């Protein structure tokens, strides 16, 4: 029997634990322009910070729980990324400067990325494609085909 392929439409959200729900919601609104969704049927949390149909779900951290070293390279989510076009990438650099945010820009050959940290130390990346979409995403791209080899 042939295995069915599941086609994913998009990454819906990333759920993160934060020290202060409202302060974190304000940061994601101010820095990335995400819109706040707080649904009564769910209670106090999560707070969804969304752009179109994807975003970040904020949950309260249990500060009494064991502390995890944020610099650890052990098993954890290292960072999460939002894709933006070149125009919005440039806008982000200007906004980060205006907000006096520390950030780092990295060239990933096909992509250029800007990294910053939210108030809880989560690494947030905005990435933009530097080549034509078909050069990276097209299924006949040998680079992408090598990634799919078994």
What keywords describe this structure?
single chain; 150 residues; alpha/beta; 2,3-Dihydroxybiphenyl 1,2-Dioxygenase, domain 1; 2 domains; 4-stranded mixed beta sheet; disordered C terminus
What does this structure look like?
- With 150 residues, this protein is α/β, with parallel strands linked by helices.
- It has 2 domains: 1-63, Roll (2,3-Dihydroxybiphenyl 1,2-Dioxygenase, domain 1), CATH 3.10.180; 79-150, 2,3-Dihydroxybiphenyl 1,2-Dioxygenase, domain 1 (Roll), CATH 3.10.180.10.
- It is 23% helix and 29% strand.
- The protein has 4 helices and 8 strands.
- It has helices at residues 21-32, 86-98, 133-136, 142-147; strands spanning 13-18, 35-37, 47-51, 54-60, 80-83, 104-107, 111-117, 123-129.
- The strands form 2 sheets. It has a 4-stranded mixed sheet with strand order 1-4-3-2, with helices on one face. The chain has a 4-stranded mixed sheet with strand order 5-8-7-6, covered by helices on one side.
- A hairpin with a 5-residue loop joins strand 7 (111-117) and strand 8.
- The two termini are 19 Å apart.
- Mean pLDDT is 86; it is low at 144-150.
């Amino acid at each position: 029997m042939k295995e069915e392929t599941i086609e994913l439409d998009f990454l819906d959200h990333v759920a993160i634990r934060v020290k202060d729900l409202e302060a974190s919601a304000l940061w994601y609104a101010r820095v990335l322009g995400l819109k706040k969704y707080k649904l009564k049927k769910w209670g106090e949390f999560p707070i969804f910070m969304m752009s179109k149909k994807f975003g970040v779900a904020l949950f309260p951290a249990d500060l009494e729980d064991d502390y995890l070293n944020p610099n650890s390279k052990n098993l954890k989510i290292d960072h999460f990324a939002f894709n933006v076009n070149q125009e919005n990438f440039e806008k982000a650099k200007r906004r980060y400067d205006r907000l006096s945010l520390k950030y780092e820009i990295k060239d990933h050959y096909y992509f250029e990325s800007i990294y910053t940290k939210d108030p809880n130390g989560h690494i947030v990346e905005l990435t933009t494609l530097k080549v034509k979409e078909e050069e990276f995403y097209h299924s006949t791209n040998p680079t992408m085909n090598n990634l799919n080899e078994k």
